[in-house]
Amino acid sequence: MIELTDKQLISNILSLPNAPKIVNEINIKLTEEQKKRERFYNEITEQEKAEFINGEIIIHSPVKKEHNDVATSLHQLIRLFVKKFKLGYVGFDKVMISLSRNDYEPDISFFSEEKSKEFKKGQSLFPAPDLAVEVLSKGTAKNDRGVKYNDYEAHEIFEYWIIDPNKEILEQYRLNKKKEYELILKSKAGEIECKAIKGFKIDIESIFDDDKNLNEVEKIVNMKSKE
To answer: Under 8 Å CB-to-CB from 36, ≥6 apart: which residues?
Structure first.
């Protein structure tokens, strides 16, 4: 399947004699979608993990143990590091990021100090983070590698990590100079360095192994303050 760029799509529509009709129909559909999105905001509860994707409300099933183990282990390391060095704010599981059309709840999200200083108590919708992490499951893999990948790239989320908890593989994508995601690393071992979180480096296996996770926790605890 060949994917067209925004410019190509616009050019294709403008080449058609009924372009005004097509644009009008799109505007009608998007207006209806926005009303549905507003109902989504009013009806979802804190107990649900839900997302709004291209006009559809997605309610997620409970996660498997391996999914929870991986997300919790990585969140623990990121949150500890960010808290210690006062680098920003870390969201986990049900923190909803609201992009121009869609709303997502990444497994982990990191917001720089500059972005997070504007956050307030009671806030339930958040802007595009600097790092988004998705842990794959059977029901989410298609979106994680498809619409989310494209949307995160389009909204210039600097880094995107995709983790397969069954194969124990981490993929690290980062925006290049063309503002496109580039695969930096795909591995189940070795060290990963996160450019979105300055100074954050961990052993990839620490995401999947409890003993190695504890070693990374101890390293972070014993790091000297950068202040």
So the answer is: 55, 57
